[in-house]
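Fold it.
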Amino acid sequence: MNGNAIGWTGIVRLGLIQAGIGAIVVLATSTMNRIMVVELALPAVLPGLLVALHYVFQLLRPRMGYGSDVGGRRVPWIIGGIAVLAIGGVGAAAATALMASRPMLGIAAAIVAYAVIGAGVSAAGTTLLVLLAQRVAPARRAAAATIVWLMMIAGIGVTATVVGRLLDPYSPFRLIQVTAEVAGMVVVLSLLAVWGIEGRSSDRQRAVTSVKKDAEAGFMEALRQVWTEPQARNFAIFVFVAMLAYSAQELILEPFAGAVFGLTPGQSTGLTGMQHGGVLLGMAVVAVAGANLPGRLGSLRLWTIGGCAASSIVLLALAIGGFAGPSWPLRPIVFALGVANGAFAVSAIGSMMQLAHSGRASREGVRMGLWGAAQALAFACGGLISTTASDIAHRLLGSPVTAYAAVFVGEAVLFLLAAGQAARVFGAASRDTGEQSSSPLRDAMPEPMSEAMPEPRGA
């Protein structure tokens, strides 16, 4: 790794961008969702399809990563993506407001806006992760992943709280105004965050020169090259399976708590909050362990595989809990599920940052884009699959307890498959480099740096 890696201040600066992405996305996926269903009395399937659409358009991530590979720079793609995301967010607000008077036109405009949001997230999110992978020292990558994702969660939380107050009393104009203000602040904050962080112009020119020959192959050839890399392909499969299991549980946990344990809406919402608290703790534990514990205790292999396996065990405990009844410790189990989910999620992100440089040089953006697309596809499918499976299980099995248990067992199996796939990825990496799986986090994965990587100044 380059000795001029960014420090904690630089990591926090880049985390501000992730917080901004979360701020705009939560308005489109949560606030406008509620307005369509409650204030406008539209079918709930409409915002559901729009949110799925924004995930589908994140399949553009490999193409965005390829563009940043060819140019040898990440910052223009980050800022361009943020600008597109801001336009899409404001467009979604305007489309939602238009639905009140001209529903069909508003829905058509919303389709375009949510597609733009997906494209903006693809460009900004993918290249932000590549820049982090290039500029953060291996020993700090787990902590960096935790910091960036905690800041995204903070951005979502702060935005939801503040915007919720600013929107009262609700009016279509107020929705557009508040969304535009948030989008403008995100753009300005992102510009300040990336100022001078990518390096000297002479370094960037060397990067452009080094990738010019590979760029002649074109995007589809670059994607084919990455897909033929066993490590990149296997990790993409891991990301899809793990995130499919992760996203599938979200939409059925509260209905399960209400139907089987008799929790009120307020109590089930509190249960979700408890789960999210566990996620934050799991992320923090991985960050501390990765930076301070030696050997296997601090390895990405342990926390990635262990987090998936633990998630599987806890989901089985939830399935059993339905049969055990109200005496089953539901809340501690849900909190444990959050801890396990947080541990595997942040270690998987750290693994992305490590593996981005493993394989053909000048393909870091395509590689990261491939994994981001796998995650987006999993999230687009997860909720739909879990709710559909729940409905089918209810119809076939009759008993809600048995139906939910069947779905939780299916999700547990997915997490076990993901753990096995992660073991395959890490095992191949260790064999390729002659390293032991017990090596610490900072040495857990190969670090062959692309010649295209610039020699940036510290930040």
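DSSP finds 16 helices and no strands in the chain.
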